[in-house]
Structure to design on (780 residues):
């Protein structure tokens, strides 16, 4: 009798997919680029949350960051659009099909410079989507010019010093109405992983600014977006623990030291305070703390603000539950009688 | 002495009527009789007609940024949709979003079209200019959408409350690189309604933007019209592969010309099949929508997209050939110029015994009839409401070189609706009379 060699069963997630089903094409970004690490975290988070890849729509603008959707989740539709204008494309896609999980990947140039107009209006609409800024402070594809998130005093390899203030996309997003706002670091595997999983269970705009060093143009001494600078200056606000809705809660927590936020889908976001008194459900405090961090030259990371209950843009539109894209003609074309009625009113 | 009596307007009118009946003798030969020329007609402006048309064409995503003279199109549409497109669950079967600018408006149209909605926006010249980059994205990634351009006088802010046909050339080639767009050109309220059906069907069938070139005169002024006819042809959603199609086929290549008409098959995000996804990108791509810088991939793809433009010539609304065999002189016009041409041809005939033939364009790219019309005439006057003979320029690109000299421009740019006398005088001057 023939025997089959015993191979370990491949690990699968709760919808029966292996992590390989979440992979993308081979990256063409530089070795060591922070963006590649972020792609890996997205793959892990989507896999662990058991998100069906077919439900995800990946969207991006132009830049190194915006190329990266090709390097994860090949089974998801993707639209690499124009520079700085991905938010409008994402908005249209979500209007057409509200059942999609929209994941936007942008960069600091794409969002904070050419795309600032669409960025602010996306935040203000609280459109359900995850919006990631892969933030390295420079334009990589055009060989290393400063972007609008570069800090005052940050120095390029050529010696040029930035003397204009950085736009804090997190403070801006909170002020404008985004309902889940945080900052992380591509090198902080654990924190980014938890934040992405929480992002998946949020219904509203998630804005994550992820510091993602550019190894080619902005990873030297004098840069405030280098691996070294981040290791020396990162100040995490909380220790983040995420308990998905489909998992048993087996660990007790101390309510004095931890804030628990129940997400839209019932998942729990537990933020163990590393800093006394910080409350991420308080908008004004969040903005205050971010401005303070700039004064102190700290790179604050963590979940700055979360409001899982605010109505999203799609709620406000009172749209029917079925995606507009697939509504049949019997629903989208009114009857002959309606036209006759309209004509009668115009006689 | 008795003081003046104060009376109301009706009494006043009656007193005048009574006085005239008693004291004035009728001296002219005219009699007034009630006619029934308006029986059954409706009164409507072109923007409202377009709005109705879009609702019956099954539009689901509408985005806009307010701009004269297009705002009333969407505002009327909002009213109609709220009345007639709310489902039995009390929820909207559509989404209408006022965007932050025209860039966002067209971006949302493209996102919506990519994800499978019937998407549209309405704008005017300055908005068209802002939409240039996105127009190229839609052309090259092959995403459907409908853009209504209610033309006003440019360049720049121009005369925002005056009418024009000045966006023809810029819209036909809106964007950098080899971008070419399909234009539909209504002349009347009922054509605004009918062309809304054509626009959405063509957009999805050809997977590209369709620009409907109305103007301020048509869009904002009231017109008498026959009642609109209910669309008899079913909505055409184009080549979209479902989950079942993919199971049967095993897979697909987004930009492959399977049928020889240049049009590939697409899938919508959310299609529940592991092989459904493709990567839409404005950068160079091959048949499978993979990034490619290979010269042969690029060339083949651009040639295929061009084939769609050739194919669509048989599908766009044909011109109205009012007469073709009466004269050596032909007139070509389009849009609201039509109404002046009707009167001008009468003037030419009655006052100058100059018979003319007439073709009214309804779309770009041009169809066979346009070429035939030019072939048949020694001189063809192209009447349009812009300075630079924009439609004539497009004709020059399309007709056989030896026919180009037959084309003469009659242009009109002062911003008021075209009048017949201007056309008549200019044609007669050029005819040497």
């Amino acid at each position: 009798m023939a025997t089959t060699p015993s191979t370990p069963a491949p690990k699968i997630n709760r919808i029966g997919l292996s992590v390989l089903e979440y992979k993308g094409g081979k990256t063409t970004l530089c070795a060591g680029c922070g963006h590649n690490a972020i792609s890996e975290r997205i793959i892990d988070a989507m896999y662990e949350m058991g998100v069906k890849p077919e439900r995800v729509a990946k969207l991006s603008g132009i830049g190194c960051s915006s190329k990266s959707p090709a390097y994860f989740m090949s089974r998801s539709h993707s639209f690499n659009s124009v520079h700085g204008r991905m938010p409008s494309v994402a908005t249209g896609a979500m209007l057409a099909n509200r059942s999609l999980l929209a994941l936007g990947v942008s960069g600091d140039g794409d969002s904070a410079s050419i795309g600032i107009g669409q960025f602010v209006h996306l935040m203000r609409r609280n459109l359900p989507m995850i919006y990631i800024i892969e933030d390295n402070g420079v334009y990589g594809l055009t060989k290393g010019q400063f972007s609008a998130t570069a800090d005052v005093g940050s120095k390029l390899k050529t010696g040029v010093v930035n003397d204009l203030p950085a736009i804090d996309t997190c403070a801006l997003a909170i002020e404008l109405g985004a309902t889940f706002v945080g900052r992380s670091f591509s090198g902080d595997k654990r924190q980014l992983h938890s934040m992405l999983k929480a992002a998946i269970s949020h219904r509203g705009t998630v804005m994550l600014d992820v510091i993602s060093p550019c190894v080619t143009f902005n990873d030297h001494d004098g840069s405030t977006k280098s691996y070294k600078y981040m290791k020396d200056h990162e100040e995490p606000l909380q220790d983040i623990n995420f308990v998905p809705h489909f998992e048993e809660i087996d660990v007790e927590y101390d309510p004095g030291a931890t804030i628990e936020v129940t997400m839209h889908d019932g998942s729990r976001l537990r933020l163990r305070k590393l800093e006394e008194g910080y409350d991420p459900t308080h908008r004004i405090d969040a903005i205050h703390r971010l401005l303070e961090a700039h004064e102190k030259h700290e790179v604050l990371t963590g979940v700055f603000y979360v409001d899982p209950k605010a109505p999203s843009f799609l709620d406000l539109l009172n749209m029917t539950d079925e995606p507009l894209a697939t509504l049949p003609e019997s629903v989208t074309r009114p009857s002959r009688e309606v036209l006759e009625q309209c004509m009668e009113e115009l006689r | 002495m008795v003081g003046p009596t104060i009376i109301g307007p009706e009494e006043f009118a009656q007193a005048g009527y009574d006085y005239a009946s008693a004291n004035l003798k009728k001296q002219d030969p005219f009699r007034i009789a009630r006619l029934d020329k308006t029986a059954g007609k409706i009164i409507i402006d072109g923007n409202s007609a377009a709005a109705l048309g879009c609702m019956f064409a099954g539009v689901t995503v509408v985005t806009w940024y307010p701009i004269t003279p297009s705002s009333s199109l969407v505002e009327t549409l909002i009213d109609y949709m709220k009345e007639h497109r709310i489902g039995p669950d009390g929820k909207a079967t559509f989404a209408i979003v006022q965007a932050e600018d025209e860039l966002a408006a067209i971006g949302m149209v493209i996102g919506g079209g990519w994800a499978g909605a019937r998407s549209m926006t309405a704008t005017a010249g300055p908005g068209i200019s802002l939409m240039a980059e996105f127009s190229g994205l839609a052309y090259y990634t092959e995403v459907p959408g409908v853009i209504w351009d209610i033309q006003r006088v440019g360049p720049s802010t121009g005369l925002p409350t005056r009418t024009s046909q000045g966006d023809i050339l810029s819209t036909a080639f809106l964007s950098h690189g080899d971008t070419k767009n399909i234009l539909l050109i209504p002349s009347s309220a009922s054509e605004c309604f009918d062309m809304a059906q054509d626009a959405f069907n063509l957009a999805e069938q050809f997977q590209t933007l369709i620009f409907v070139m109305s103007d301020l005169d048509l869009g904002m002024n009231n017109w008498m019209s026959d009642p609109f006819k209910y669309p008899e042809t079913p909505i055409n959603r184009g080549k979209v592969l479902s989950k079942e199609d993919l199971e049967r086929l095993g897979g697909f290549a987004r930009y492959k010309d399977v049928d020889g008409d240049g049009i590939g098959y697409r899938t919508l995000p959310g299609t529940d099949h592991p092989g459904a996804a493709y990567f839409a990108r404005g950068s160079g791509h091959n048949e499978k929508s993979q990034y490619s810088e290979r010269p042969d991939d690029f060339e083949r793809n651009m040639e295929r997209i061009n084939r769609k433009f050739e194919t669509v010539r048989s599908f766009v609304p044909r011109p109205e050939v009012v007469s073709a065999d009466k004269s050596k002189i032909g007139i070509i016009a389009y849009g609201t110029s039509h109404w002046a041409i009707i009167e001008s041809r009468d003037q030419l005939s009655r006052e100058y015994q100059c018979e003319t033939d007439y073709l009214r364009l309804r779309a770009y790219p041009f169809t066979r009839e346009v070429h035939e019309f030019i072939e048949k005439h020694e001189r063809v006057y192209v009447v349009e409401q812009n300075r630079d003979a924009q439609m004539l320029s497009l004709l020059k690109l399309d007709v056989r070189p030896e026919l180009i000299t037959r084309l003469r421009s009659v242009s009109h740019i002062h911003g008021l609706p075209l009048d017949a006398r201007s056309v008549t005088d200019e044609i007669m001057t050029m005819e040497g009379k």
Q: What stands out?
A: The first strand of chain B starts at residue 42 and ends at 45. The CA atoms of residues 126 and 156 of chain B lie 7 Å apart.
